[in-house]
Design goal:
- With 281 residues, the chain is α/β, with parallel strands linked by helices.
- Helix content is 39%, strand content 21%.
- It has helices at 7-19, 35-47, 75-85, 95-98, 116-120, 124-139, 151-163, 193-214, 220-232, and strands at residues 2-4, 24-29, 50-55, 89-91, 143-147, 169-173, 237-246, 259-268, 271-280.
- α3 (75-85) links the parallel β3 and β4.
- The longest helix has 22 residues, at 193-214.
- The structure holds adenosine monophosphate.
- Adenosine monophosphate binds next to α2 and β5.
């Protein structure tokens, strides 16, 4: 596995892979890798000749009062895990490499970025779309792999790719969970033992909501009532949002039909966790 910090060096490697006809799979991350990230690498390695992973804690997607400065990092551990999982090149740009002095261009995907996480994190998806667009231009992947853990991110990136005629495929990959149901997240490391225990209410409630739909419930309000009640019964839980929306357009729904996304963000202390399930009827 090669470690690259400069955009020009990565572009040269990509060019030589393309000349020899290799397909390129790309996994963008912010590091502090766990099995969720590694599952994306496995998909990428299965479907491509050459796998590039980026690790970049992107400042433009963090709000002023968010956790940019304390975002967890473990570069040595990450490099080992990435290599074992089948990454060929790991791209670790400095902030000044991605956003040199005088940087002025941002990508703003409209409407769908105003709901769900976009509502509580203004500017977040502008930062995400911008950095992902830049990374796509640098890596020129055939396919890029994103976790359904960040379901809104998948919808936003797909929209950007469609709108800007980018010639790559976005591959969504299922959420990887701990054995007890907690969705893996780099931010889980912030949780105290008690908060981690309380956070199990998220997956158990989402799974129960999915069962309600499987058993015939179609009223969005009835499902939301259950979720709000059950999650707020956990004292440590502070609900940011719980919503049931069309999984493809993120439009709010009154009645469950087709593919719905049940998505939530809940704070435990200062740690904001997100989780979701997609249910097809
Ligand atoms: P992050 O490092 O948090 O920006 O995540 C990088 C990529 O890994 C994103 O596409 C995430 O959706 C994905 N990811 C994070 N956690 C999980 C998980 N538990 N299961 C599947 N994918 C995940």
């Amino acid at each position: 596995m090669r470690t690259i910090e400069k955009i020009s060096d990565l572009k040269a490697i990509i060019k030589s892979q393309k000349v020899s006809g290799k397909s390129i799979g790309f996994v963008p991350t912010m590091g502090y890798l766990h099995e969720g990230h590694l599952s994306l690498v496995k998909h990428a390695a299965d479907e491509n000749d050459f796998v590039v992973m980026s690790i970049f804690v992107n400042p433009t997607q963090f709000g002023p009062n968010e956790d940019l400065d304390k975002y967890p990092r473990n570069l040595d551990g990450d490099m080992q895990l990435a290599e074992q999982a089948g990454v060929d090149v790991i791209f670790l740009p400095k902030v000044s490499e991605m956003y040199p002095e005088g940087y002025k261009t941002y990508i703003s995907v409209e409407k769908i970025t105003e709901r769900l996480c976009g509502k509580s994190r203004p500017g977040h998806f502008r930062g995400v779309a911008t950095v992902v667009c830049k990374l796509f231009n640098i890596v020129e992947p055939d396919k890029a792999y994103f976790g359904e853990k960040d379901a809104q991110q998948v919808v936003v990136i797909k929209q950007m790719v469609r709108d800007l005629n980018m010639g790559l495929e976005i591959v969504p990959c299922p959420i990887v969970r701990e054995a007890d149901g907690l969705a893996l997240s780099s931010r889980n490391t912030y949780l105290t033992k008690g908060q981690r225990n309380s956070a199990l209410v998220l997956s158990t409630s989402l799974f129960h909501a999915r069962d309600m739909i499987k058993n015939g419930e179609r009223r969005v309000n009835a499902i939301l009532d259950y979720l709000k009640k059950n999650i707020s019964s956990e004292e440590a839980a502070n609900i940011d949002y719980i919503e049931i929306v069309d999984a493809d357009t993120l439009e709010p729904l009154n009645v469950v039909e087709k593919r719905v996304l049940i998505a939530l963000a809940v704070k435990f202390g200062t740690t904001r966790l997100i989780d979701n399930v997609i249910v097809e009827v």
